[in-house]
Design goal:
The structure is a single chain. The chain has helices at residues 3-25, 29-45, 51-63, 68-72, 75-87, 97-110, 118-132, 142-154, 159-173, 175-178. By secondary structure, the protein is mostly helical. It is globular, with a radius of gyration of 17 Å.
Length: 179
């Protein structure tokens, strides 16, 4: 391979990622272009992911229904990158970042927030990160709890109690049966 071919492949991948972000997020080309400086700030603040992975995370955040202002400002991406840096539980060679975002989105929506925010990611993410130290729970598992989360909340079970119980059940029975 030549250097020119590598550069050409890089720019082609970049165009593909931009198109994917535009389609999944429902953004115009100008809105996508406006997000790149914010994504760059998030990457420099938390250098835990390659650029392509950050764009994939941004795309998944937009597609999973996170608050558009938090996606466009880079706040949701920065929060996910912070979680990645703290937990090292998703990303290249570790786990699928798309599944982490999807699991987080499903749980937050299951708890009754149909418009999840970066603050929701940070709140739930901190609780899951704490549990990760002692159990086998993963961000991608959270979707398994989402279907029951609203009912458990109505019965007075807090987010922390739900996550703790799910983590315990997951350790005993696995993610599918833990919920």
């Amino acid at each position: 391979r030549t250097f020119n071919k590598d550069v050409s492949d890089f720019w082609e991948k970049q165009r593909q990622l931009e198109t994917k972000l535009q389609i999944q997020g429902g953004f115009t080309p100008a809105q996508v272009a406006a997000q790149f400086p914010e994504m760059k700030k998030a990457l420099f603040a938390t250098p835990s992911a390659p650029v392509g992975e950050a764009v994939e995370l941004q795309t998944q955040l937009a597609g999973a229904g996170f608050k558009p202002a938090d996606v466009a400002s880079g706040a949701a991406l920065k929060t996910m990158l912070d979680l990645k840096a703290v937990t090292n539980s998703f990303g290249e060679g570790v786990g699928d970042p798309k599944e982490a975002v999807l699991g987080m989105s499903q749980l937050i929506k299951g708890l009754g927030n149909v418009d999840p925010t970066a603050k929701d990611i940070r709140r739930i993410g901190a609780k899951v990160a704490t549990l990760m130290a002692e159990s086998d729970i993963q961000f991608s598992d959270l979707g398994q709890l989402s279907g029951e989360a609203g009912t458990l909340k109505q019965f007075g079970m807090s987010e922390s109690e739900q996550l703790g119980a799910f983590s315990w059940m997951r350790d005993i029975k696995g993610a599918e049966e833990g919920a």
